[in-house]
Specification:
The chain has nine helices and 20 strands. The protein is of the alpha/beta class and 425 residues long. Helix 2 runs parallel beside helix 4 and helix 4 crosses helix 9. The model has no long low-confidence stretch (mean pLDDT 96).
C-alpha cells in the first residue's frame, strides 16, 4: 500500500517513462513534440494568431497557446525549464584504446558528480549528422543496452580510496566497451549501425553516456522516484503536461532550453534572443506595436522551474537550519537576496495563490549564508525580457548524480500549480 495517491503515482510513472525515452536533450524535445502533437499543437506559421503552436530547434522547444480574443496587450504566462543534464560526452576522436581494452575518450559536461558514473552500466544517445540527399541530415540515436562502463580501481590498488577519492577527468573516466582485438572497429561503426546509416556517411555527432537502469518507484511504500536526469527533465515533463491541458486567458507559453548546465550561452540556451524573439513573433501575430508589446511584457510572469535541494538526512549541516525542505512536501520556492534566484515578494504571492487554488502545499528554500548559491535560467530570462520572474522546483537528493531521487508525489503537485499559473489571466 503506497502513501501517495493514484494520481501522484500515475504521474510519477509517466515521468519515469518520459525520462527513459529521453536520454539526451534532443530526445527531450522529440518527446515533448509528441506530447504537443497529441494535444493539438502545430508547427508555427508566419502570421499565426490564435491557436496552439510550437517551434523546435535542436535541444530547445517553445510552445504556446494564444486564446481566442487575445489582443496586442494580452500578457504572457511563461514556464521555462532546461533539457540538458550533467553527463559524459564523447570527444570528436572517441576511440582511445589502451592496455588491451576498447576505451572511449570523453569530456565532462556540466557540474558532474563524477563518482556517480563509476561501475554503472551505460548506453549512448544523442544525434548524428550525416550525408543526406540534399546536404547534411540529422538523426537521433538511442542505444539503450549496457554497452559502456567506467570501471573503478580496486581497493587493493588504492587503500585510501574510502578516505579520499580523487578522479582525474582525463585519465579516470574513460569508459570501456570491450576487449581490443586489434581490428579497426570504431564506436562510430556501432552507433551508425544502430541508426541504419553507413559509417562513412557520418559527418558529425553529439553523443553522451546515460544510465540504462529503468526509472522506478522505490522505498517500502513506493513513495520515492529513482531516475536519471530528474534535474531537469522533471520540470520539462511537468510544464508540457500542464500546457497540454491548459485553457488559458493569457498567452500560455512553455520554453525548454538547452545548455543551462554550462551557462546557457548557445544558440539554444536561455541566454540568447530565442525567447524574446518567440514572444515578439506571437505579438506580431496579434498586430502589437512595440509599445503594446512592452505593456504586455510588463504585465507578464516567467516561472523558472528547476529542481531544488531537499534537506539531506546525512548532511543536515549543509542546509539552512530554518528552512527544512522535505521530499513529498510540495514544490519549493527558491530565494536568494543576490538574485541568483529571481523570486520576489509579489512572485511568491502569485505562486502561493496558484498553489492554494490547486490544493498543493509549498515550501521555501534558501541556501546557507556561508555557502555559494546555484542559479537557474530565471535571472537570465528576467533580464532579457523584463518580465517578473520566480524560481521554483521539486526537492531532490543527489542532484547532478548519474542517478537522482525525489518524492513521487511532488512532480504531480508541481504540474498542478504550473497548470494554474499558465491558465491565470
Amino acid at each position: 500500500m503506497t502513501s501517495i495517491s493514484p494520481s501522484h503515482r500515475a504521474h510519477a510513472l509517466s515521468l519515469g517513462r518520459f525520462i527513459d525515452e529521453a536520454p539526451s536533450p534532443y530526445h527531450v524535445v522529440q518527446r515533448s513534440i509528441d506530447m504537443l502533437d497529441t494535444a493539438g499543437f502545430r508547427p508555427w506559421q508566419p502570421g499565426a494568431g490564435a491557436g496552439r503552436w510550437f517551434l523546435a530547434q535542436d535541444g530547445s522547444v517553445v510552445a504556446w497557446i494564444v486564446p481566442d480574443g487575445a489582443g496586442p496587450t494580452t500578457p504572457f504566462r511563461v514556464v521555462g525549464a532546461h533539457t540538458d543534464s550533467p553527463n559524459l560526452r564523447l570527444k570528436p576522436h572517441p576511440d582511445a584504446n589502451a592496455a588491451g581494452w576498447r576505451r572511449l575518450a570523453v569530456e565532462v559536461y556540466g557540474g558532474v558528480l563524477l563518482n556517480s558514473w563509476l561501475d554503472r552500466d551505460c548506453g549512448l544517445s544523442g544525434r548524428l549528422a550525416f550525408r543526406g540527399d540534399d546536404g547534411v541530415s540529422t538523426r537521433l540515436v538511442h542505444i539503450g543496452e549496457p554497452i559502456l562502463r567506467v570501471p573503478q580501481l580496486a581497493i587493493h590498488l588504492d587503500r585510501e580510496v574510502n578516505e579520499r577519492l580523487r578522479l582525474n577527468k582525463q585519465d579516470h573516466l574513460a569508459p570501456v566497451w570491450g576487449i581490443d582485438d586489434g581490428s579497426a572497429r570504431s564506436i562510430i561503426d556501432v552507433v551508425a549501425a544502430s541508426a541504419d546509416i553507413g559509417a562513412a556517411d557520418i559527418l558529425g555527432f553529439e553523443l553522451m553516456l546515460h544510465d540504462v537502469t529503468p526509472s522506478g518507484l522505490i522505498g517500502v511504500d513506493e513513495e520515492l522516484l529513482s531516475a536519471p536526469r530528474l534535474d531537469n527533465q522533471l520540470s520539462c515533463h511537468a510544464a508540457m503536461t500542464a500546457l497540454a491541458g491548459a485553457n488559458p486567458d493569457a498567452i500560455a507559453v512553455v520554453a525548454l532550453f538547452d545548455h543551462e548546465e554550462v551557462g546557457s550561452v548557445s544558440t539554444t540556451g536561455a541566454a540568447t534572443a530565442a525567447l524574446p524573439a518567440r514572444l515578439r513573433l506571437i505579438a506580431d501575430g496579434l498586430g502589437a506595436t512595440a509599445d503594446e508589446h512592452a505593456a504586455a511584457l510588463a504585465a507578464s510572469l516567467f516561472v523558472s522551474s528547476d529542481n531544488a535541494h531537499a534537506t539531506h538526512p546525512n548532511y543536515p549541516a549543509k542546509h539552512d537550519p530554518g528552512h527544512y525542505i522535505a521530499c513529498n512536501g510540495g514544490p519549493a520556492l527558491k530565494f536568494n537576496a543576490n538574485q541568483r534566484y529571481t523570486t520576489d515578494a509579489v512572485g511568491a504571492g502569485l505562486f502561493e495563490l496558484a498553489a492554494e487554488r490547486a490544493g498543493v502545499s509549498t515550501q521555501r528554500f534558501v541556501s546557507r549564508s556561508d555557502m555559494p548559491c546555484g542559479s537557474t535560467i530565471g535571472p537570465t530570462v528576467a533580464a532579457s525580457t523584463g518580465m517578473r520572474a520566480l524560481d521554483v522546483g521539486v526537492p531532490q537528493l543527489a542532484m547532478h548524480s548519474a542517478r537522482e531521487l525525489c518524492g513521487a508525489a511532488d512532480p504531480w503537485d508541481l504540474t498542478l500549480v504550473l497548470a494554474e499559473l499558465l491558465s491565470a489571466s
